[in-house]
Amino acid sequence: QVQLVESGGGLVQPGGSLRLSCAASGTIFSINAMGWYRQAPGKQRELVAVISSGGSTNYADSVKGRFTISRDNAKNTVYLQMNNLKPEDTAVYYCSYRGTHETTGWNYDYWGQGTQVTVSS
Q: How far apart are CA 73 and CA 30, in angstroms?
């Protein structure tokens, strides 16, 4: 059981910046990946960025160069620094966590409650 608590969403003007945070608690897996997905009305949920416990990262093409994902393993927290925000970035952003059991290799997935990001003038 992993609980994810998100913060940092809100209203920002185009070109502005915002930083999202997500803290994981509960049963923490040594092998894990944390990331951010987003979903706008009428659209499918899409991967924004993900970072593994080893530090490797992946980004959606639409955010590469503008967003940066990072993590603090000691705090079990992942961050998403969003710069040069555009109206099309408006969506509900969900923190995600995948833990992998070291012995069995089984994966366990968890989701945060979502936080609204609105980019508008």
A: 9
Distance in angstroms (rounded) separating the CA atoms of residues 108 and 68 = 25
Average pLDDT (48-60) is: 95
HEC string of 55-82 equals CCEEECCCCECCEEEEEECCCCEEEEEE
Number of separate helices (H) and strands (E) present in the chain: 0, 11
* Neighbour tally for 87: CB within 10 Å: 11
Long-range CB pairs of 46-50 (<8 Å, 24+ gap) are 48/80, 48/93, 49/80, 50/96
- Calculate what percentage of the chain has a pLDDT beyond 90: 88
The one-character DSSP state at 54 is T
| Beta strand 31-39 pairing with 57-59 | unpaired
